[in-house]
Every structure is written in C-alpha cells, then in structure tokens.
Design goal:
Number of domains: 3
Number of helices: 21
Order of helices and strands: HHHHEHHHEHEHHHHEHEHHEEEHHHHHH
CATH class of the largest domain: Mainly Alpha
Shape: globular
Number of strands: 8
Distance between the termini: 46 Å
CATH architecture of the largest domain: Alpha Horseshoe
Strand order of the largest sheet: 1-5
Helix content: 40-55%
Length: 491
C-alpha cells in the first residue's frame, strides 16, 4: 500500500509553474503573486512540501514522450551514475543515452540537462516553501523547515558530485539576479550548505515516514556526505552510522528479494514512491531495463557488464539470482552478454520462464519504488567510516561488513576476514547495491574512480575516456541563459 500519492492541489501546481521555457530557475512575477496568496495556512505549506517530492519523483517518459526536458526527477539518474561506472551500459550505441556508458556526454546531452534542471526544480520548490514557512502552525515550523532542507540538500549532493561546483541558491530570487543564479560556488562551500541543511533534519525530524524525509534518513545521508566531502569527517560519519544502528530499529530483510518487492520494508530508510498504472504517478525506468522482450521505448538500458557478472558469480551469494537475469540464447552463457536488471521488474513481473518472460499489464507505467537509502548501505558506511581510508582489523567494522554478507548466504565464521580491506569493502558494496546508483559515487569517494574506470574503458574500447570525464559538462543551455556567467567544466 502506498503511503502517499504525490498529487498536488491545482493551485499548488500553478504556484510551482515558476519558470518559463527559457529560464527555469527564475521565478516569474506572477508566480510570486500566486505564492503570496496561496501559502496562507499550515495545510498550504504542507501541500508545498509534497510538491517538492513531486519534483523528486519526476515525470514518466512513457506519458510525456518528448525528448525535450520534462523534469524526469530521479527517473533518469541511472544514466548519469550506473552507466558511467563499470556496472552497466546501453544495449545499443544509438541515441544520447548511449553516450553515458562510453564517456562521451556533451554539454547538449538532453538527459543530463533534464537531470540538472530537475535537481534545481527540487531546490527552487524547497526555497519557495522556506520563504513562506512562518505561515505554518508554530508546532510544525521546525519539522517542515527540516524536511524542505533535507530535500534541498539531497539535490545539491547529487549536483556537486556529478557536476562539481554549482550555483548555490538558497532563497527565492528574481529573474534579474543572474550573478546569484549562475555563479558557480566551490565544492567545499556547497558541502557546508548540505551539511547545515541535513543537521537540521537530524535535530528536528522524526521517523514517522519512509517515503518522506526522516531523522534516520538525515543521519544516513549526512554520514555519506561526511565520507564524501573534500575534508573527510570519518569520526562524525561513524557516530551517525552507530546512532542509526543502535536506535533506528532498522534490520536487514531476511529475504533479499523482499527489499525490492515488499515496499517500505524494515530495511528501507528513504524511497521515492510510484503508483502502478497511473500515468501521473508511475515510473518508466523499470520497463527500460528490459531488453530481451522489450517493454520500454529504448532497446534496453542498464544492461549488465560482464565484469560485474563475474563479481556476482564469485561474491554475490543469494543476491545474484535476484539482481540480474538472462533470457534466450544468453541464458545458456556462463557470462551473459545482455543480462537484464531484475531488482525493479515492473510490478514484480514473472520471469520464471526464461524464454517467455512476462512483464505485467502496464510495464511502462510501473509502480516500483526507487530506493535512495537502505540499512545495508548504512552498515557498509559504518565499516568504511571506521576504516578511515585504510584497511582495518577493527571488529566493529568487520561485524557490520559481515552482517551484510551473512544475509547473502556467507558463513559468519568461515567467511569472516581477519582484516577488512578497502578492496573487499568496495566489492561488497558493488554486489549488494548494484543498479541502485551507488557504484560511480563509491569509486569517486574511495579515490579510485580514474584507475577503475580507465581500465574499464580500455577493456571496453571506450577511447574517449579521460579523467576530466568524471565530471559531467554543465548543460550548454544553462551557460547560454547565464550570458557567460556560468562556466564550463574542462572537457
């Protein structure tokens, strides 16, 4: 059962038409007037907060099929993350989606542009709610503020990791304030804002929801920020993870498959919800992950790379059969060439027949949740924070690491290492969190992205790869709108 249908009152939607087709970050004067007249009560502010989640959820490509920007929210994120790691690729070399796995994304790439815009739409909506937060009931102001700031922090965390320093906009600004709208701010300062926003979540949020911001979600995300920011804070990250482990009540699901098909389960910390069959509230990525019996608009996306399959075979345990599958001739190969992701089969489709998989009644209008944070990630972050950048024999770090491995079917004694290495932790994160958009960020955070992806690109024949490709180019449209204020990443 879904907790919330991300629907917004019509007037809220009108208020959030805050940009024309030329300048999406710039609120128009009439939108400000609508906002002034709309945000008059606690109910109005809450509706505005739900509107931020609507931007995060995004618009299903199968309901609005234009290739133009359409604020897809997180629905295209796998292209910018998994496809730019050694985990997955597009099935074909056609179209702009195939540019990601070959490291040839250019400033005019429509999917990158859409994602950049979507994250700023989240930020703009959060800023708008914060402007009118005093109109909420006094007892809710701190909670609503923390919720809006959590979502703003999440959007900025994604932007700074993918694009580097970006414009830092924390208030509603006018269309003529281009210096504020388009001046890139150094990464360390962006991270300071992210930390500040999430600290409010840790202080003021509760754990009433899994599909909305919560205290434990703020703790987990802040721990990841501390592990990622230019000046690492391993001790603070470790303490946050330990707080989650000892007080949240979260546990690993005994059955790994239930993590993905028993939604909002005991392992989930924060997930974006969708509604099956509803054109306005569904998602399209589940259908795009199909290939053998294509259900989406593309030939097949998030196709599993052979080197990841090899790691699954050796280290995946019982996660392997729940993570990917191969059909037809591929099903008989030791290392399938075109294996499909099955963590997000449209509404839990039946793939028991490897020759004739079925994908439900409306696979392109899927209702599978998108999981952003879950407990196994926290356990592995706890190990990482304890390791503080190096190998360790610390029993607490190894305990957290082994808790995840034992759930995967490994023996608590025979398979327990005496020393936990960074390589072993990274490998465990790879097979545990595959296809959940963590791998690229893990490689960056642990400082080995260039080595791993350089070797992968060479093996796959991706000749355009170089270290500069670890950052995506700033969308050309935004640079054009800035009249030269917004600068481009080195290409």
């Amino acid at each position: 059962m879904k907790y919330i249908k991300f629907l917004i009152f019509a007037i809220t939607g009108a208020m959030f038409i805050s940009c024309d087709t030329d300048e999406f970050l710039n609120p128009l004067p009439d939108s400000v007037i609508v906002a002034d007249s709309f945000f008059e009560s606690d109910e109005d502010v809450l509706a505005g907060i739900i509107g931020i989640y609507d931007a995060l959820q995004g618009v299903n490509e199968n309901t609005e099929s234009s290739s133009a920007r359409y604020n897809r929210g997180v629905q295209l994120e796998y292209l910018l993350t998994e496809h730019r790691s050694d985990n997955t690729r597009s099935k074909t070399l056609e179209g702009s989606r195939a540019d990601f796995h070959r490291f040839i994304v250019e400033p005019d790439n429509i999917q990158s542009e859409d994602y950049y815009q979507s994250m700023y739409e989240i930020i703009f909506r959060a800023n708008t709610v914060l402007k009118y937060i005093e109109n909420a009931d006094a007892t809710n102001i701190n909670k609503y503020t923390a919720e809006a700031k959590f979502l703003r922090a999440y959007a900025y965390f994604n932007l700074v990791r993918l694009y580097g320093g970006v414009p830092l906009v924390t208030t509603v600004v006018g269309a003529d304030e281009k210096e504020l709208l388009f001046t890139r701010i150094e990464e360390a300062i962006v991270y300071e804002q992210i930390v500040s926003d999430l600290q409010e979540g840790v202080t003021h949020l509760d754990n009433a929801h899994k599909s909305r911001a919560s205290k434990v979600a703020a703790q987990a995300l802040l721990a990841k920020v501390y592990l990622t920011q230019p000046s690492r804070e391993y001790g603070l990250a470790k303490q946050l993870c330990e707080d989650v482990i000892s007080t949240s009540g979260l546990v690993l699901e005994a059955n790994y498959r239930n993590v993905f098909y028993n939604e909002l389960n005991n392992e989930i910390i924060f997930a974006v919800q969708y509604l099956s069959g509803n054109p306005e509230e569904s998602q399209g990525f589940s259908s795009e992950f199909t290939s053998y019996k294509r259900q989406g608009r593309q030939d097949g996306l998030n196709i599993v790379n052979p080197n990841l399959i090899e790691d699954f075979i050796a280290f995946g345990g019982n996660r392997t059969g729940v993570s990917y599958a191969a059909f037809g001739d591929d099903a008989h190969l030791p290392i399938p060439e075109n294996a499909e992701v099955i963590k997000f089969l449209p509404d839990g489709s039946d793939i028991s027949d490897t020759n004739l998989p079925t994908y439900g009644g409306s696979p392109s209008l899927a209702g599978n949740d998108w999981i952003i944070l879950r407990y196994s990630d926290v356990l592995l972050m706890h190990a990482e924070a304890t390791m503080a950048g190096g190998d360790t024999s610390d029993s607490n770090a190894i305990n957290s690491y082994m808790e995840v491995r034992v759930r995967a079917g490994f023996d608590a004694i025979a398979d327990r290492p005496s020393v936990l290495t960074v390589d072993a932790l990274l490998l465990e994160r790879r097979v545990e969190l595959a296809f959940e958009n963590h791998r690229f960020f893990d490689l960056l955070r642990l400082g080995i992205a260039h080595d791993v992806l350089g070797a992968h690109a060479t093996a796959m024949g991706y000749t355009s790869y170089n270290m500069r490709r670890l950052l995506l180019p700033i969308p050309a449209r935004e640079i054009n709108l800035s009249d030269g204020i917004l600068t481009q990443n080195p290409q």
